[in-house]
């Protein structure tokens, strides 16, 4: 009898969070992204298929991946929306399916919220580890939603900052974020004031127009840009994109989906995985942007970690 592990939406989120250890996750993500950037035959991950839901201002993304070495077959389905300010509906909903690659039988159905939030922040933390200034003191988060929270958690676990700042278009939300954070967080009244002098800047918003301008960014700072995952959406302006050394998670993904890359005409210098596998250098002394879009292989290793841990506890 085949056992299917079912994590229904919003019911087992705390359990999934407990099973997804950050240090372990970072190490698995480094390995898989390094391998991805070698473009070997052992790793299959097409560029995300996206179905626009024009009527509802949303998109359904399908993110399959097969990792032959570890025999992980997985797909995530993620629905993401641009919502009116004040809407109570969620902006991102994800479900992850793990399969037995021998039979094709589904072995797990997991809520994708924690996996999406934590693996994205863990990937940004890998970019920061390689690209932020050596003695980085100030972390700045733009946005106060799910990704901002997970970036705060992962970054403050992985690094030590003297100051953490947050800006959000809703001051109340930023204040809520600061109250809920596990340490001191300065709420900033504008993006400009939030980012000035910051060593690491995370953009995690649903903006479709640039909100971070190169003229405000300290030379040598590192920007992890997580939002703007559509070809006509932006978080960063042309100056920043053109002046910074630009890294991406996947060159094909960025060419298809990143408005910041496509519309600025900026050159992509390297993939994160190329830095990890040593085929391209980390230009830590320059101003750097890591443009993240999210990859099926990241979900696959995350889901496998959760599944294996869960199974070992049965
Ligand atoms: N790169 C990746 O792998 C992933 C990227 N994302 C993207 O990250 C972004 C943030 O996701 P979540 O934190 O889950 O969303 P969320 O809805 O929880 O938070 C969004 C934040 O953006 C702010 N925001 C919305 N519209 C804005 C605007 N026009 N200008 C400035 N701020 C605005 C909201 O006030 C809120 O603070 C989204 O664009 C999402 O699609 C999400 C998952 C993975
Ligand atoms: O990788 C993901 O998961 C997502 N990427 C961009 C948009 C929402 C989800």
UniProtKB/TrEMBL annotation:
Gene Ontology terms, MF aspect: pyrroline-2-carboxylate reductase activity; thiomorpholine-carboxylate dehydrogenase activity; thyroid hormone binding
Any GO BP: thyroid hormone metabolic process
Reactions listed under catalytic activity: (3R)-1,4-thiomorpholine-3-carboxylate + NAD(+) = 3,4-dehydrothiomorpholine-3-carboxylate + NADH + 2 H(+); (R)-lanthionine ketimine + NADPH + 2 H(+) = (3R,5R)-1,4-thiomorpholine-3,5-dicarboxylate + NADP(+); (3R)-1,4-thiomorpholine-3-carboxylate + NADP(+) = 3,4-dehydrothiomorpholine-3-carboxylate + NADPH + 2 H(+); (S)-cystathionine ketimine + NADH + 2 H(+) = (3R,5S)-2,3,5,6,7-pentahydro-1,4-thiazepine-3,5-dicarboxylate + NAD(+)
Pfam families registered for this protein in UniProt: OCD_Mu_crystall
Gene3D superfamilies, A to Z: NAD(P)-binding Rossmann-like Domain (3.40.50.720), ornithine cyclodeaminase, domain 1 (3.30.1780.10)
EC number: 1.5.1.1, 1.5.1.25
A GO cellular component entry from the record: cytoplasm
Broad enzyme group: oxidoreductase
Chain segments annotated as coiled-coil in the UniProt record: none
Family classification: Belongs to the ornithine cyclodeaminase/mu-crystallin family.
Subunit annotation: Homodimer. Binds the thyroid hormone triiodothyronine (T3); T3 binding inhibits enzymatic activity.
Protein name, as recorded: Ketimine reductase mu-crystallin
Organism: Denticeps clupeoides (denticle herring)
């Amino acid at each position: 009898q085949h056992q299917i592990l079912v994590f229904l939406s919003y019911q087992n989120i705390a359990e999934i969070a407990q099973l997804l250890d950050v240090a372990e996750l970072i190490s698995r993500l480094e390995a898989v992204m390094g391998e991805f950037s070698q473009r070997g035959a052992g790793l299959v991950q097409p560029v995300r298929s996206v179905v626009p839901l024009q009527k509802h201002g949303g998109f359904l993304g399908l993110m399959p991946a097969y990792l032959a070495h570890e025999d992980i077959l997985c797909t995530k389905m993620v629905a993401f929306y641009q919502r009116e300010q004040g809407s109570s509906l969620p902006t991102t909903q994800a479900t992850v399916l793990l399969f037995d690659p021998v039979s094709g039988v589904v072995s797990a159905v997991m809520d994708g919220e924690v996996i999406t939030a934590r693996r994205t922040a863990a990937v940004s933390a890998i970019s920061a580890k390689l690209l932020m200034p050596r003695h980085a003191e100030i972390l700045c988060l733009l946005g106060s939603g799910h990704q901002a929270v997970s970036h705060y958690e992962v970054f403050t676990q992985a690094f030590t900052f003297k100051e953490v700042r947050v800006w959000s278009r809703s001051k109340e939300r930023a204040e809520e974020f600061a109250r809920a954070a596990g340490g001191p967080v300065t709420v900033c009244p504008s993006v400009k004031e939030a980012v000035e002098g910051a060593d690491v800047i995370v953009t995690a918003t649903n903006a479709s127009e640039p909100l971070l301008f190169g003229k405000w960014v300290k030379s040598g700072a590192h920007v992890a840009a997580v939002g703007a995952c559509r070809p006509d959406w932006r978080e960063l302006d042309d100056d920043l994109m053109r002046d910074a050394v630009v890294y991406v998670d996947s060159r094909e993904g960025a060419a298809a989906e990143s408005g910041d890359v496509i519309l600025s005409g900026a050159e992509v210098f390297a993939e994160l995985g190329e830095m990890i596998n040593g085929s391209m250098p980390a230009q830590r002394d320059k101003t750097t942007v890591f443009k993240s879009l999210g990859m099926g292989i990241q979900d696959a290793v995350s889901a496998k970690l959760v599944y294996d841990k869960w199974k070992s506890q049965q």
